[in-house]
Amino acid sequence: MRLLGVALLLAAPAGWSESTQMEEVVVVADPHVRTFELSETLDIAPDSATILRKAPGASVVQNGPLTGIAQYRGMSRFRVSTQVNGMVISAGGPNWMDPPLSYAPAAHLESLLVYRGIASVSAGLETIGGAVKANTWQGDFSDGGIELDGRLRTGAQSVNGAVLYSAAAAVSNESHLVRVSGLSESADDADFKAGEILPSEYKRERFDVGYGYSRGAHTFRIDYGRSETGDTGTAALPMDIAYIDADLVNVAWQYDADDVQLLARVHTSDIEHGMSNYHLRSAPGNPAMWRMNYATGDNRGFALAASWRGWRIGLDGHDETHNSDISNPNNPMFFVTNFNDAERTLLGLYLERELTLSDRWMAELGVRFNHVSSDSDVVNATPAMMGMPPAVALRDTFNAADRKQTDNNIDWVAKLRYRYTDNVELYGGLSRKTRSPAYQERYLWLPLMATAGLADGRTYTGNIELDPEVAHEVELGFDWAGQRLLVSPRVFYKRVDDYIQGTASTNMAAVMFVQMMNNANGTNNPAPLEFNNVDAEFYGIDMDWSYQINTQWSVEGVVNFVRGERRDVDDDLYRVAAPNGFVGLHYTRPQWHVGVESFWTAGQSRTSQINGEPSSSGYALLNLQGDVTLAQGVRLGFGVDNVFDRNYADHLSGINRVRGNPDLATGERLPGYGRNFFARIDYSW
Ligand SMILES: [Cu+2]
Questions:
Q1: What is the pTM of this model?
Q2: How many Å apart are CA 130 and CA 123, to the nearest integer?
Q3: Distance of CA 238 from the midpoint of ligand 1 (Å)
Q4: From the CA of 613, how far away is ligand 1's center (Å)?
Q5: How do residues 426-475 score in pLDDT, each as one tens digit?
């Protein structure tokens, strides 16, 4: 019988597959990946990122209901490589209102792969903080004759009146496949124990169509997706989403023979995005402070890969171009060119080797070379046009600078596994990983909060001269896979040189600009920060485990502990998950299942002073869920989240920036949702 909720697929080494009898645990061939089989979720949560909390080492940074950002072992945002159906998608919004996982809605998700610990060099372009791969349902070629496959899903929940409608269908024979899918989901503002979170409504629609051709070992696919996000709150950020329209194109050819696999992929995504600080939240009292921001992000990417007898070689690339223009509807003269064709291009080449050294020793060695170049066009803004001295100085310095930057980065990975007994394997890994600065970190020229979702309420300026981050990591652990018990602990230490982080700005023009804007607008923004290279370290322990009590009862869990610190000064790193974990207990019968899950998080007092990060309190939540098969292919899922209606706020939730909410002051951490009843019906054929 399947495990409910999310089944943890333990990735045991290939040599174990015969000895692992547990029905719930599916052993997959790749020893370094954990898979979450998300076709088994029961709720209607829209955001795929929220599911990551069940993966060891992973957490979710949340700025809004559709803006979950993956965190892995304390690193977030562009430090965690994310692919959606093999596509690399850089967020269209300069504040990451559309993180990469937002392009794989939970209702369409078929699997979410989280690389355990040090990611292979083949896992992604820049994997300094780990790698996540989301795959959505795309239908399968039939084994013979014409086949019609499909899935319908609909559901609703109480805490925010959310509704979900999703349909997907594919018609195929052995060589052709045509598929189409649609999704519509929306919600009102959500309740928490002491009131409402404003604004936390969301609205998203999605349409996909695809064609596939298969012959022998060859498969060709071309897919198009259109994602339209409407009014959606992001109370932790200075603005809310008005719209995010994205066109996604993905073309891939795969050759899958017994000893050789080849892949060629090209993909594009064109994103148009509008946001404002007045259309969903209470508008600023001063009409001069109203802001509309129109942003675009264009992605172009490709991958060529070959694997043969344990060798993997690949060439991959990604190019992104971003524009962001700020305006004021009350003042047609006002403009800020926030980013002007800020471009970042990465070209990568890697070689990887998996070795079976003996019947007990296995190794993986990999090396990657990345060439990263970035550039930006000239900028301007009304304050500089009007001759305000610090704005003039910032603009002229930026426009006169040599903005084109080039980095040559080398990553390597070495992993070793030793089969100690039939049930126990020891593991050790070493790596060097790099990341070149993001366009925000280099080209944010005017002190603003466009920081890829940091949401710390600080204004920043970029630093064109930034160096790439370089991390060295060591990781040790073991995998115990008995008949009933699975345990996989890891301990890790990651030392990062040139870690990119905001430090107090020494740019007098930036400091003066923020002071003058405060005086002019009656605001009290803190002094600006500047992105700089500092030294940092991360260390911790994470572990997942499961135990099959008998054929009906099973229990599973995850424990995470991570610390992130500066090495050059006495401070902690910003927005690092507090110690946390979860436990799930499940009772499974052939036609139905019920489960209890508890998530807990300790308080976080190790916070970043430079970011002005407040500490947080711990909490524990209890969730109930169940499902019943009503007829062939028809399943009803149901449950209650936060059964005791706890008032809590996760450390990784942002700080409320929205004024005028009688239930929640600005500067308070955004609370988690209150008690929530949900139900969902799935029909698949
Ligand atoms: Cu935005």
A1: 0.93
A2: 9
A3: 9
A4: 22
A5: 999 999 999 999 999 999 999 999 999 999 999 999 999 999 999 999 99
